[in-house]
Amino acid sequence: xxxxxxxxxxxxxxxxxxxxxxxxxxxxxxxxxxxxxxxxxxxxxxxxxxxxxxxxxxxxxxxxxxxxxxxxxxxxxxxxxxxxxxxxxxxxxxxxxxxxxxxxxxxxxxxxxxxxxxxxxxxxxxxxxxxxxxxxxxxxxxxxxxxxxxxxxxxxxxxxxxxxxxxxxxxxxxxxxxxxxxxxxxxxxxxxxxxxxxxxxxxxxx
Length: 206
Prior knowledge:
By secondary structure, the protein is α/β, with parallel strands linked by helices. It is 34% helix and 14% strand. It is built from seven helices and six strands. The chain has helices at 20-23, 29-43, 102-119, 135-145, 160-166, 182-187, 195-204; strands at 2-6, 12-17, 122-125, 150-153, 172-175, 190-194. A six-stranded mixed beta sheet has the order 2-1-3-6-4-5. The longest helix is centred in the middle third of the chain and has 18 residues, at 102-119. The chain is elongated, with a radius of gyration of 27 Å.
């Protein structure tokens, strides 16, 4: 697959040949969904907690005598049946993370990249360098490229001026190539890759 390369100013900078093994796959929704579920489960805090009967501060004395009342045979007031008692089978602090094979994760990323390429949501720019960290100037560049909602992936290090200017713009995310992930690719309309990011991805999946 061949794609045109542009500069931030919107000028043509040649073209690039995309690898079919990374950008030419037929997207599989089931694989992409597995990776997204794995990502979201991994980042879930899991700090939910309720008190059980052993943690509630109430007397453990028997409420009333065993026989002769005509009522049920109750003991401690900390049991879940009573108001103010402990919660039965309530949530506890735990990790929601689950395992996903490394090959499935890599395949899911390739399918997400292929989905963006297939939908026409992939843009390749020469570089993401900005001399002055000015949000107004960057918005002008984005307007020329018709970018309003995008994930921008740079090389191993993101240009400081570009990252500073972009952080005030809503619906724009900037990440180094090591941070590329399926969830962030899907949540933005456009995926913008620099040539350095493209080279790094092809080297990674060779």
